[in-house]
Amino acid sequence: MSLEISQKKIIGLLFLFIILYLSLYTWNARSGVLDRLAAYTGLEFVGWVIKPGKLLHNHAADFWSTYIDLVAVHKENKALKQQVKELKLQIMAKSERAASASRLESMLGFAPPSGWQSSGARVVAHDFGPIGALNSLIVDKGKLQGVAVDMPVIHPDGVVGRTFRNGLNFSSVLILSDPNSRIPVISSETRVPGIISGQGYQKPLTLQYVHLNSQLEKGEMLVTSGLAGIYPKGLPVARVSSILRSEVSLFLIVEAEPMVDFRKLEEIMVLNKDERLKIRDLGFEG
Asked: Can you give the three-state secondary structure of 201-268, one letter per residue?
């Protein structure tokens, strides 16, 4: 019984739907209202569906394009950094070559004293400082290159020291700042003689045996006197930096600064007395 009632309801609703549909169809055919409404609502629906998708697509495309650009920029930046490093190394190398050429040019322009010959050498090691037994340098010339003990070692700026130990291809140079260094000098203007010696690493040189009544002046250049036979006469050694009178000694307390900065030395010159001059000094020349 209930099944028959349900079927009747369904048939009735279907019939009612058909009547309603035909009525709306007929009304729409006459007026066209539903067609316009459908077109409008459909357009709005499509617009609201497509617009977010379009915006999302545009943002995704922009993001991907930006990512690709950033990757390209990163690669280019990395390549540019590498180029900058290489250019810096090239500039440093060229600057070093220019500095070396300038130093070598000044050494080539130096004329050794009359009766002396000079040969260049490179400094390969420094041995001075608070823990150094001696204030010395090691150069790349030895017995095979004609270097002997007690040869003057100089720089275009002034005296460096003397060779005191030599091997076949390398030699040690005792520099002015070592306490064992002693060089007879004379002041360039007042002609006051003395013995200049070292006091150790980063300490001024001291000029010994200068009488209290000497006319030595601060700022005077001290040059080699040629005595003792090791150094030729007239090579610049140091400049007087201070003069004090002693109350317990017969000599002035004189300090001087060397003309050469030993810490920056890279090339030096070794002086060798001409053989003819040696023969004449020994008295064998007629």
From this structure: CCCCEEEECCECCCCCCCCCEEEECCHHHCCCCCCEEEEEEEEECCCCCCECEEEEEECCCHHHCCEE
